[in-house]
Design a protein that fits this description.
alpha/beta; nine-stranded mixed β-sheet; 22 strands; binds 5'-O-[hydroxy(phenylacetyl)phosphoryl]adenosine
Length: 446
């Protein structure tokens, strides 16, 4: 497909790299990968040590599949090198630092050179444009600003695209609604659950969420389902697309979804080489890499990053690679079913919150507001799952009790787990301010 034909279908002028052939893209990946491996080996002691221990050298990468011989990098590696041990450039060349919240240990720190920031902005701009946002549009950015990559990452991308950015950040929902009413933005950037919070709060104020100026939503930072897309698109009368990313690899904009197909995010493969590996195997070796279409854990190698080159980073995100569609050379990722560390194992059955979301949202009496509670009653060895879910405002308590039974049966049929469903009053469960916590693990700690 030429640049002109793609531009004709979407009315947008694309980056040259979005329209190149797969062969050209793979040639670019190979040369960038060879450079990145040598660069990381020479500049980051952790990579030199790991490569040496695994008996591999950057010159061993002659073709793309040779990447499978190189060792993985994990979040634990980044934690051990806290704060700046993974940086490949001297501190004065680092233009910005971001970090994860570090709720479960030390924060993970990432850095960017000026060029890294420019590349990041370009890729977020590319993702937003793919999702329908155009230069000149007003963009309401409700991703959190600060050490989290969402706010500033999305902000720079929207500016680079030529939009008017409204940097509201997350939270203060009443104020968000006032600004949406007054500034009349064309697009909103937020997590899917926070957009739900905004829509809900509008309804409470007597505002029809479908009546706002918003035409596009670019949503990410947490797993969400096709059912949630439908819910948000209908309630808010807009087109909702996915944006994916993670701080260790860059931030938002590693992959973005095209509005004309809405069939999963295209990974921007001119900057990142994805692989899928067995999520529960620590093995390295070309054999442990799974083929396109197979489900496993997503692994990324950066191809252009200067401050923090990342080699075979284990994201813990579970998905699969699919062929490119609207951007034929760039593979897509399937929806993320969950993170391997967010998987609930309930009496031998694996379960993810997104499976419950998918099932619950198909039951019209039930709302998308739910949480999962894991308990282990005194003296028992069996864990118990309780799905707490709000009924829809328009539905009676009796109707919702029937719906609860349906949900329980559907979970048993489709997931294989027995659970208790507890339908609660509308507005009683905690609302999202950004990334929503779905799982409440109340089991006694071992
Ligand atoms: O959440 C970056 C981001 C910000 C992406 C804004 C999109 C929009 P982290 O805080 O490092 O970075 O969290 C990364 O969030 O490994 C996934 O588990 C999850 N995640 C991010 N985007 C998606 C998505 C940002 N579109 C972690 N679908 C990742 C599902 C997502 N999960």
């Amino acid at each position: 497909m030429t640049q002109e034909t793609v531009a004709a279908t979407t009315g947008a002028v694309l980056d040259r790299e979005e329209t190149i052939s797969r062969d050209e893209l793979e040639a670019l990946q190979l040369s960038r990968l060879q450079h990145t491996l040598a660069y990381a080996y020479d500049r980051v002691p952790l990579y030199k040590r790991k490569f040496d221990e695994a008996g591999v050298h950057p010159t061993d990468l002659r073709e793309l599949s040779d990447l499978g011989k190189f060792p993985f990098t994990t979040k634990e590696d980044l934690r051990l090198e806290y704060p700046f041990g993974m940086f490949a450039v001297p501190q004065h060349e680092v233009a910005r630092i971001h970090a994860s919240s570090g709720t479960t240990g030390r924060a993970t720190v990432v850095g960017y050179t000026k060029k890294d920031l420019a590349d990041w902005a370009k890729l977020v701009a590319r993702s937003l444009r793919a999702s329908g946002v155009r230069p000149g549009m007003k963009v309401h950015n409700a991703y959190g600003y600060g050490l989290f990559t969402g706010g500033l990452g999305a902000h720079a991308g929207a500016e680079a695209l030529g939009c008017t950015v409204i940097p509201i950040s997350g939270g203060q929902t009443e104020r968000q609604i006032t600004l949406i009413q007054d500034f009349k933005p064309d697009a909103i950037l937020s997590t899917p659950t926070y957009l739900l919070t905004i829509a809900d709060a509008m309804i409470k104020q007597g505002i029809d969420p479908a009546s706002t100026s918003l035409k596009y939503a670019v949503l990410g930072a947490e797993p969400w389902t096709e059912e949630m897309r439908h819910e948000l698109e209908v309630t808010m009368n807009l087109k909702a697309c996915d944006i994916y990313g993670l701080s260790e690899v860059m931030g938002p904009g590693v992959a973005g979804e095209c509005v004309e197909t809405q069939d999963g995010s295209h990974i921007w493969e001119d900057h990142f080489r994805p692989e899928i590996v067995d999520a529960f195997s620590p093995a390295i070796g070309v054999d442990s890499v799974l083929g396109d279409g197979e489900h496993g854990e997503l692994v990324f190698t950066s191809l252009t990053k200067e401050a923090l080159p990342i080699i075979r980073y284990r994201t813990k995100d579970l998905t699969r690679l699919l062929p490119g569609t609207a951007r034929p050379a760039h593979r897509r990722m399937g929806r993320i079913t969950g993170r391997s560390d967010d998987m609930i194992i309930l009496r031998g059955v694996n379960l993810f919150p997104s499976q419950i979301e998918e099932i619950a949202l198909r039951i019209p009496e039930l709302s998308p507001h739910f949480q999962l509670e894991l308990t282990r009653p005194e003296g028992q060895r069996m864990d118990r799952l309780t799905v707490k879910i709000e009924r829809r405002e328009s539905v009676s308590v009796e109707q919702s009790a029937t719906a609860a039974k349906v949900l329980q049966q559907q979970i048993k049929i489709h997931v294989g787990s027995s659970c208790t469903v507890d339908v609660v009053e509308p507005g009683t469960l905690e609302r999202s301010n950004g990334k929503l916590r779905r799982i409440y693990d109340m089991r006694p700690k071992a």
